[in-house]
Write a structure and sequence with these properties.
- The protein is an alpha/beta fold and about 325 residues long.
- The protein has 7 helices and 15 strands.
- About 25% of the residues lie in helices and about 35% in strands.
- The strands form 3 sheets. Strands 6, 7, 8, 10, 11, 13, 14 and 15 form an 8-stranded mixed β-sheet that branches.
- Strand 3, helix 3 (about 60-70) and strand 4 (about 75-80) form a beta-alpha-beta unit.
Length: about 325
Amino acid sequence: MYSVLVVDDSRGMADQLADLITVQTGFRVLACSKPEDALAAVQEHPIRVALLDQRMPVKSGTELYRELQQVNPALKAVMVTGEASSHEVGQAMTLGFSDYLAKGEIARLSDVVLKLHTQYEVDRAAQWRVGAPELLHSERRKYLLFGDRVRYYLAGVQVLDEAHVIPDSWVTVQQINAGQEKKYTYSTSVKEAFIVETSQQYNAKGSLAADVARKSKVGARIEAAVTRIVKKTRTTETTATASTEETYRLPEESSDPAENYVKSRHIESAPVYKKLRLSFVKACSCCREDTSVPLVALVFDDAYATRHTDYYRDGTSEVIDTGHIRRPGPETA
């Protein structure tokens, strides 16, 4: 697995920088020249540090870094450029680049990568909420010698978003018209309490995710372990309430033809998830090789986001956020 990424539209330059870093640091470095290959690399490998050429024809280094951050917000990045303006450098640092390096400063390259690689590990140790790796499953393979086993561990859980709502999950739970009053009790069940984001390219043949998908016991233990961690570390949002029943009412229709009033209100809700970056390790005692694979998952947090859409007499509409409602329990009682 690679831990450092070099992206330059000149594949030859990318390869040279990657070789230099490998020789001087010992890190496994992946070189590529296309933005789509860089995204795939961050999705499929535990990349800690990315070196991005600023001036590339398809996407600039800063544009590419924005996309890479969506996959791994903790990623350390270095702008590598021969002609970046002061504005571009300032924009890069504002965006979150850890450093910038002119192509004439290649002598500093390995030191910068080593520093950021170490900082990534320090930050991860402070943020991830699993102490010792948790054993999920152990098995013997037919080709292994007696006593040798393959073990699957959950090594880390990092919270990417404390209150994530899937855009397509909003549903209308109640509709009231002008002059009506209705009550609605929010249900606390969801179809999927644990979701692995299939948009991430982690299910390639031979990957740990593919192994897990074929083993129902492993999948169930992952869900149980991650859910337990989420429940243990939950913090109640300031907008959440402990009530699950709400009363909604609208005034009567106005007889004034000039008044623009709400004719209909659609009450909507969507489950709230914690968005997590999981780190799994597949350890083989025969070949003494550990494979680490990141995975993004969503865990239902026993809460619902609420909003309503008002439809006015003149045909316009307005969406109003009304906060979160949490199921009553030990945390909110």
